[in-house]
Amino acid sequence: IVENYGADTLRMYEMFLGPLELSKPWNTNGIDGVYKFLRRFWNLFHSNNGEFAVSTAEPTRDELKLLHKTLKKIEEDIERFSFNTSVSEFMICCNELGSRKCNKRAILEPLVIALSPFAPHIAEELWQKLGYTDTVLKATFPAYDSQYLVESSFSYPISINGKVRAQMDFALDMPKEDIEKVVMASEIVQKWTEGKPPKKVIIVQGKIVNVVI
To answer: Which among 208, 203, 179, 183 has a CA at the least distance from the CA of 193?
Structure first.
């Protein structure tokens, strides 16, 4: 397995098989999934032609939210020896970053440190590529910042006569009156009301907007 997939894949796959305290049948059918994850993680740091390409651009709030959500989960999982769910969380994070084409140092560098207990060889190599001369194993484990885990907006389902017809994002602290104005001016609601005033607009903050016509 080490010859075909590498030591990091074997190490992570053993963690991925299930809870540490339970016995598990040895089955290599899913090992390819862990191997592909490590390859995708490596690709976050490299261009399509294989050149190391990490950006110093400022991360977006969504990217920071994804990073700190992952760090929080990994920290909690390590504390309770729940390594299989940590591996799953790394996979989810890697897929999200890949879909956003995120190669920002501020996001990727903490993830290398977080991954190092799970996949020390690939983490060490990426750490060197990031410009460090000391081992990643001496780096301080990144702490998550709870400010990025607080939701500031909500995607409201816009229901017309009980049927959801649209989704609209509003700040969670936005007054109901302002939400109503934006909803009623929207194209989808105008289409259903045919420009006539509704009988009632029910807004449950942080849950739903229901327009009764």
So the answer is: 183
Cα torsion 179, 185, 190, 196: sign: positive
Name the 3-class secondary structure at 171. Answer: strand
Any residues with CB less than 8 A from the CB of 86 and at least 6 apart, and which? 15, 73, 74, 77, 78, 118
How far is residue 64's CA from residue 83's CA, in Å, rounded to a whole number? 23
Q: What is the pLDDT of residue 21?
A: 85
| DSSP structural state of residue 199 | S
Q: What is the pLDDT of residues 129-144, one digit of tens each?
A: 999 999 999 999 999 9
Residue 147 scores a pLDDT above 90: no
**Closest Cα partner for 83 from 109, 112, 117, 111?**
117
Report the DSSP pairing between strands 200-204 and 153-160: unpaired
pTM: 0.74
SS3 135: coil
Helix ranges, the chain (H): 2-5, 7-16, 31-43, 61-79, 83-99, 105-115, 120-129, 176-185, 187-193
* pLDDT of amino acid 41: 98
